[in-house]
Design brief:
With about 190 residues, this protein is an alpha+beta fold. Helix content is about 25%, strand content about 45%. It contains four helices and eight strands. The longest helix has 17 residues.
């Protein structure tokens, strides 16, 4: 019995190190959140589009939300999730992921889009269409780390005075285009 206690006492540092490492791996698998800007245009008209993506990883289900519009106001909001993870010949991940999602607009339009990224959505390109009108966007990091406002970081002058009304409108448009979907509450 004394030898067992001596062995346990000797291994106490190892046990603590293993516990800390296991906790570190557990925390590494927890959710994270980051915001990136998006900018591009509608391809047919060249109308500029600005916005942001808010990406998160919850329980290994990667995805996020996208908000786009003009510099002055938000016009559309959507949600995306991982659709495909690219692999090598030996079935090892290349890091490239394809995210797909739906997008809904305050004026009643709806569409779909695809985000291709090599760094879990932190950068990449988005292509999609809203009511048949194609758009293309690039995801980028903040234009300036010196500030915290949406205008300074992403070029957005959006106000959020009618956020509750806008959320109801997005939900209504989504239910019109996706009747009976159980995932619509995830948009908001």
């Amino acid at each position: 019995m004394l030898s067992v206690l001596r062995c346990a006492w000797a291994l106490r540092g190892f046990t603590i190190a293993v516990s800390v490492a296991a906790m570190g791996f557990t925390l590494a698998g927890c959710s994270y959140l980051f915001v990136r800007g998006v900018e591009g245009s509608y391809l047919a008209t060249g109308t500029p589009v600005l916005g942001k993506v808010i990406a998160h990883n919850e329980s290994e289900q990667m995805g996020g939300t996208i908000e786009i519009g003009s510099a002055e106001r938000q016009q559309c909001r959507g949600r995306y999730s991982v659709s495909e993870v690219k692999t090598h010949f030996w079935k090892l991940e290349t890091g490239e992921r394809i995210y797909r999602g739906k997008i809904y607009c305050l004026d009643g339009r709806a569409g779909a889009f695809e985000l291709v990224s090599k760094d879990e959505g932190k950068t990449g390109s988005i292509t999609g269409e809203i009511n048949g009108e194609a758009f293309q966007l690039d995801v980028y990091e903040s234009k300036s780390r010196e500030c915290m406002t949406d205008e300074c970081r992403w070029g957005l002058k959006w106000t959020y005075e009618k956020e509750r009304d806008n959320t109801r409108t997005y939900y209504r448009v989504a239910t019109e285009h996706e009747p009976g979907s159980k995932d619509l509450w995830l948009l908001y």
